Amino acid sequence: MRLPRRRGEDRERGAVLVESMLVITIILVLFFGILEFGLMLRGRHALAEATRTGARAASSLPRTDGYQIAAAEAVAASLRESIASESVLSLTVFKADPNTGLPVSGTLEACTASCYRFVWDPDLQQFNAVAGLSWPASSQEACGDVGTTDYVGVAITGEHDLVTTFWSDKVKLQDKTIMRLEPITNSAQCS
Fold this sequence. Notes:
Blueprint: H1 7-59, H2 67-80, E1 88-96, E2 115-121, E3 126-130, E4 151-161, E5 170-180, H3 187-190
Antiparallel strand pairs: 1-2, 1-4, 2-3, 4-5
Helix pairs in contact: 1-2
C-alpha cells in the first residue's frame, strides 16, 4: 500500500526543478562565454603574431625596394597556419610615428601618404595591393644616427565570427606592431 504524498514534497520537487534550470542556464552561459572568449583570444593572438612577423620583415629591409611586399608575404605566411582565411580583411604597412604608433599621415583605416594598403584574398590566401598610396624605399631614413631612423608599422584588421550570436555575428579584431628600421652601415645604399 502506498502512502499519499504530502503537499510539501510536491513543492520541494518543483523548487528543485526551477533551481536546477537556473543553475544549468548560468553554467551554459559561462561555458559559452569562456568558449567565445578563448576563440577570440586565439584569433587576436594569430593577428598579433602575424604583425610582428611582418614588421620584422619590413624593418630588416630598409631602403630596399619591395620591403612592403616582403612584409605582406610574411604576414600571409603566418596567417595561413593560424587563422581561418575568411577572418582576415586588410593590411597596412606604414611609416610610423614612434610616439603614437600611428601612421605619420592619417589613420590606420585611411592613411594619406607614406603607407601601403593591402586587401586579403581568402581564396588565394594572399594580400593584394590597393593602388594609390606609397612610401618609397628611397625616402626611408635609415642611414646614420639611430635617433633619426624611421619606424615601420604593420597593422592588420580581421574579424571573429561569433559562435554564439546572442548580441552580434562578428567582432572586429585589429593589431599593429611598429619597429625601427635597421640602420644601414653600407654607404652605397645611403647615397
